[in-house]
Design brief:
This protein has about 475 residues and is α+β, with helices and mostly antiparallel strands. The protein contains 14 helices and 24 strands. The chain is about 25% helix and about 20% strand.
Amino acid sequence: MAKGWVKRWTSSGKDHRRNDLRILRITPRSSRGPIPWHLPPSKSHLIRALALFSQTQQRVTLENVSSAGDDVRAMRRSLAQLGVQFDDYDDEGKILHQTNPMDLGPHPDSVKWVLTGVGPHGFKRPVSVLNAANSGTALRFLAGIVARMEGPIMLDGDNTLRQRDSDALWDSLRQAGVEVSIGQGKERLPVILSGPWKKEQLQQGIELDIGVSSQPLSSWMLASAGLPVDLQLNLQGKGVSNRHSKLTAEMIQLTGGTVELKEGKCNLSPWVPAFSESYFVPCDASMASFALLATHVLESEVHLDGWPESEQAIGHEILQKSAIECGIKWDGAILNIHEQKSPVTLDVTDSNDILPPMAALLSLGPGGRIIGAAHAAHKESNRLARTVELLGFFGIKATLLSDGVEVEGRQEPKKPDQPVPTFGDHRLFMTAVILAARTGGEVIGQTLHQVADEGFLQRLIDAGIGIEVATTPSLID
């Protein structure tokens, strides 16, 4: 490449260029009245279901997939590249066809998907890169599947995913005889995997660090249908997001597999996945944290729709159990502000995704500490430090802890005097938008919510909040 291309060209001749940022310009709510709040489908359940049911040799129907979000779409597109067939249906049961036959994503009007599995050994090598976009879950689950195949196969993601650490998974795959190739530098992607697993190395067992994320463990579980031998994973570190790995094990049992988890070990055996029923995807309980925040910020009654059964909430049932302590009365499906004076301590070891909105909620209400979230530093952003930084833009004082955040109570957010960055993190973005719905202001980003909740902005617009897309000049050095 010619040296002239190394520097960016600019009309000013300087070493920076102008870049117009997309922002949302938000004005406070202009109306009152109850706010309907429908929870989107759980991407944790749905991504696991896609990985698992793709390994059956059956047609499996997935229901409640409308507005599934970008993470799920990335997983589905990648599985389609691996040979899995998907058919989309509308709410009248009619099959839908993409206008562009090259589009491997779901039809925007689909409410039901039917996938045709290829069996544990029926995936085909993709002709192009598998792009997990913003989804660490999709990336790691896909890696477990393609590590069984003849490589090389490349996986990639967006800029935020390229910064995230998957070293524990890559190390475990190397132990299994898979060649893992990653470029030098800060970016952790793209990665090239050249499998398959080696039987003799699997027989020796695999050391797996679960101290940063439970996803490498779930990846091995979901891929275990293709094992040539029984495998023992020796688990290192204190497990985090344990309910998610438990969910994976429970879903594997649905298809006839078994997972034995005990005393720092996970024993896996090959099996032939089978599932002949429809699978209804529960709604995402973690997204209720934004409904709680909106209740207090907008001083409005919120009607919550889609709250799942406790066993399907994957640790996020803490929201319902702790709502009254956090200043929200949760009565059936109705949320209202409840005066609460005593500071609260929330342990989110198994539910760290709720950290940003709950920290904001506590700052408006009784104050307190959120602990057990050290592993949130490995999300799309360093979610611990970035939560404190984000709240600061609204004049909210927060203190960074080694494993969480502490906030004073009864603070009043102020209108930010500059566009609020959200660091490529959809949960920070959604928190900022709700706070700005009270104060007014500008939030950097436009579509980050689509990672998990496509209807988020429209829901707020329908509630009377002014939201318009604009641009603001920025300089990139």
